[in-house]
Amino acid sequence: MDRLLKIGIGSDAFPPTTDGVCKVILNYAEQLNNGLADATVIVPKNPNQLDYKYDFKIFRYKSWWFPSNEGYTIGWPFDEKLHRELINMNFDLLHSHCPLATSYYFRLVNEKKRIPTVLTYHTKLEYDIEKRIPVQRAKDFSYHFLLNNINAADEVWVTSEGTVESLRKVGYEGDYIVMPNGCDFPITNVPDEDIAVIKRKHNIPEDVPVFIYCGRMIWYKNIRLILDACAKLKADGKKFKLIMLGFGADEHSIKRYARKLRLGDSIIWTGKLLDKGEILGYYGISDLLLFPSVFDTNGLVVREAAACATPSLLVRGSCAAEGIDDCETGFLCMESAHSIAATIEKILDNKDLMKKVGKKAQTDIYISWEDSVKKAFDRYQVVIDNFKSKQ
């Protein structure tokens, strides 16, 4: 093909909103526009948007804004003019990363002009439906809406095999492709002097082990298990520091619970951090990432930690633990505070193993966004060819 493929990368959120899918969208756009394709991000409008900061095209469509801690908007793609505008951009392929408003937007466009469409299913949306929608009829409508959006795609991607269970719960029965996400950070060995600076900043003694949780402060990421496990360690006389890096809707209640457990002097709350160098520094001073989430479908933070040779403690059988070998490229436990605490105690008695596992994670499970998006781009061409063969 003499020209670059024109790709529309869609989702329901984009910076300044910050979550895992926003990171994915940003990296897809950056990597595709680095010589692979002519990619445009398609997302709802946000009153705090700073789109001038990016070197690629961003198309914002109408949205409803409801003030919240996490800054989400609700896309409103029902304007005939919007459908025509997207059609006139002459995309070769549309790729949605969320089966909600933007996927529905792509459905409406495809009713007027068929364009090959890919959907990546990132999030276990049944969690939110069951938790936030009290009326069964409304739940049924939500599942029906999701399923129709998923079925409308020419090809469905997941970021891990474990995500397929969520797809089946929604009702999807079709085929899928596993397309893993990459890592935001380059492989980095944080210099000893940088580690010393951060430890001085937070008054962390050299001989005290450091754990880190990185992600949204939301209870359903099993943060309660982390805090309960740390309370048990403290009760057993273990000294440690726990870095809680991130923010989210449940942040205040999480902090209250930590105070109730009398963990105040053992926890460092960083709040919202966006500077990659600063985040790398916190991974660099940490001995172990605690990420017992069974909600996440891929767990970007596991690869982020691996970039700094920091091993992860994960729940056996979770999507985040997919591809992790116990005591080889990470550590696995059961989904309980007792198991987390017991596994940590065993690990702390063998610091050489912890370092060895961190180094092996760095070499074996790390994947760059450059490699990840190149694999996705190669698959785009297969999707387009399959689409054309059916016309």
Would you mind describing this structure in some detail?
The protein is α/β, with parallel strands linked by helices. The protein contains 14 helices and 15 strands. The chain has helices at 20-36, 80-88, 101-112, 125-132, 136-151, 163-170, 192-201, 223-235, 251-260, 276-285, 300-307, 337-348, 351-364, 369-389; strands at 5-10, 37-44, 57-61, 63-65, 73-75, 93-96, 117-121, 155-158, 177-178, 210-214, 241-245, 267-271, 288-291, 312-315, 331-333. A 7-stranded parallel sheet has the order 3-2-1-6-7-8-9, sandwiched between helices. Strand 11 (241-245), helix 9 and strand 12 (267-271) form a beta-alpha-beta unit. The chain starts with a strand and ends with a helix.
User: Largest beta sheet, briefly?
Assistant: 7 strands, parallel
Low-confidence stretches: none
Q: Tell me the series of helices and strands, N- to C-terminal.
A: EHEEEEHEHEHHEHEHEHEHEHEHEEHHH
Given the C-alpha coordinates, what overall shape results?
A: globular
The number of distinct helices, counting runs of at least 4 residues, comes to 14
The percent range for strand residues is 15-25%
Number of strands: 15
Distance between the amino and carboxyl termini: 19 Å
Major sheet: order of its strands? Answer: 3-2-1-6-7-8-9
**Class by SSE composition:** alpha/beta
CA-atom Rg in angstroms: 22 Å
Task: Report the average pLDDT across residues.
Answer: 92
